[in-house]
Amino acid sequence: MAYETILVETRGKVGLITLNRPNALNALNSQVLAELLAAVEGFEKDGTIGAIVLTGSEKAFAAGADIKEMQSQSYVDMYLGDFFSGWEAFTRTRKPIIAAVAGYALGGGCELAMMCDFIIAADTAKFGQPEITLGVMPGMGGSQRLTRFVGKSKAMDMCLTGRMMDAAEAERAGLVSRVVPAGEVVEEALKAATKIAGFSLPSVIMNKEAVNRSYETTLAEGLRFERRLFHSMFALEDQKEGMTAFVEKRAANFQNR
Ligand code: CAA
Description:
It is built from twelve helices and ten strands.
């Protein structure tokens, strides 16, 4: 597929997707969604890829859903089209996705970063849910995911005032996992993704699945789910290899089996 709104590359065992609508600060329209889903699906099926990095430009990860695309839509258009529901497919990706965020991550941009598995931010990053300034509210998960990331008080502040959070505040609040100097964010994310891609893929996917389950269920059910997955890992050749390598004081050579 020839992409017009994203750039898709591989760096070793890592798939790198760059949002590329510079004239619209990477605003997320239907074409971006379709292309992003196709690229991610390609990496999901590609046995040589172990992790994915999603980034934007230095100025903007993404400045939101495309306001010009939504501006004249009616309620019926939005409801019957179940607008934004297509993004749920992105969240079903099994391989880890790291968001490398520089500049603006606003509205749908912040929501897309939160759909990834973790966020590495440049010190220039600015996060916000400014939908209220447009007379609406978040529609791609902001009111739900941001609240789970940073708690009710800060999420309420962000959604009701529309103010932006800088990278330092985002790190303090637990929205991002690390902040790195501008210009290094993609390299840092690629380094982390390369490390992940060197581990056993089944174990990577089970780790991701278990952490994600903690958002969906009670502690007791989550612990049970974790334990059952942990037990199942003893059917993996990579479990034998990982533990044997430790005992033999050598590096593990995972076969992804
Ligand atoms: N949708 C469509 N176009 C957008 C856009 C968006 N979300 N954000 C920026 N653009 C476009 C601008 O219209 C402009 O295009 P033109 O040159 O054709 O006029 C171009 O990108 C550059 O933007 P600015 O001139 O505004 O750049 P700036 O540096 O002066 O300001 C900004 C940067 C503060 C990020 C500003 O662009 C801005 O406020 N953008 C909108 C942010 C926003 O409200 N996001 C939420 C969208 S709604 C949403 O996301 C709903 C949801 O929950 C999913």
